[in-house]
Amino acid sequence: MAMSEPNFAVGVAPPSALSASGNGKPVEYKRIYVWELPVRAYHWINAIALTLLCVTGYLIGAPIRAFYAAEAYQQFWFGWVRFIHFVCAFVYVFNFLARLYWGFVGNKYSHWNAFFPLKKSQQKEILDVIKTDVLEVQMHMPVSTGHNALAGLIYFGTFLAFVFQTITGFALYSSMSSSWLPRMFTWIVPLMGGESGVRFWHHTFLWFFVTFVIVHVYLAFYHDYIEGRGTVSSIIGGWKFDRADKSGK
Ligand code: HEM
Ligand code: HEM
After folding, report:
1. Is residue 216 in contact with ligand 2, taking CB distance under 6 Å?
2. pLDDT per residue over 58-88, tens digit each?
3. Lesser CB count within 10 Å: N end or C end of the chain?
4. Do residues 155 and 115 touch, judged by C-beta distance below 8 A?
């Protein structure tokens, strides 16, 4: 049930454009619809929810004492912080489940197997990315149209962290709620050495997400600049550009 590609005939930009290559000769580029609407919607809902979860989570762990100047009954700011945390938690979890579903019905770029380097070509690409972008001992490599294999693997690691944070989050929530969803996670609390253990790990993973976001946003701009294929705008509009003389994976 992959989504159909938007039609070029209806007044949008042509599928190819001419630009100058390093030696001054024009190079033809083709436009490829990579990130379908559900992937882009997932991305930005996740980005907003996760940012709010990090900020409100941090405030829950380290409340701002100056706000306690008024009497407790005259203020509700901490209540709002927790409320936003819980609303975003539900949005973030169901959004993630929708993305998992899309990994089975979406196009090849969003398919679940783009996140696991099971093919020889993906394993080779991981080495290429490390040599080119991390160690800088190699100048060029063929670039993937969708996620490169290393990025895909790191996203998979992030998805595991999403699951961990969801489990520990609902385990903390289970003592404050009688609804069936959080109650399913009650058994996690004794397993992690009580509420303080769960809270410790839930808090520690905050810093994993903060690190991921900083590196991720930097790399999005880095690849946009180095490759000149519209990486940043692709997660907004869905399109990337590939040289027409390359096969494009
Ligand atoms: C990636 C997403 C998330 C991040 C970064 C995050 C971060 C945090 C942090 C840093 C705390 C404070 C812990 C402390 O006391 O030091 C916290 C508290 C909490 N979080 Fe999350 N959280 C996330 C997702 C979730 C989810 C999915 C749930 C599920 C309901 C959840 C439920 C809770 C609960 C119940 C508390 C304790 C609130 C309280 O005792 O007032 N969190 N979170
Ligand atoms: C809290 C902030 C963010 C989080 C948690 C986040 C997370 C993610 C995740 C999980 C993916 C994989 C998407 C999938 O296949 O389902 C992704 C892809 C992507 N994100 Fe973000 N993102 C954030 C912010 C941003 C921002 C601000 C930008 C742009 C400046 C950006 C640009 C991209 C791009 C271009 C891709 C596709 C990357 C590729 O070609 O491999 N992200 N992001």
Report:
1. yes
2. 999 998 877 777 777 778 889 999 999 999 9
3. N
4. yes
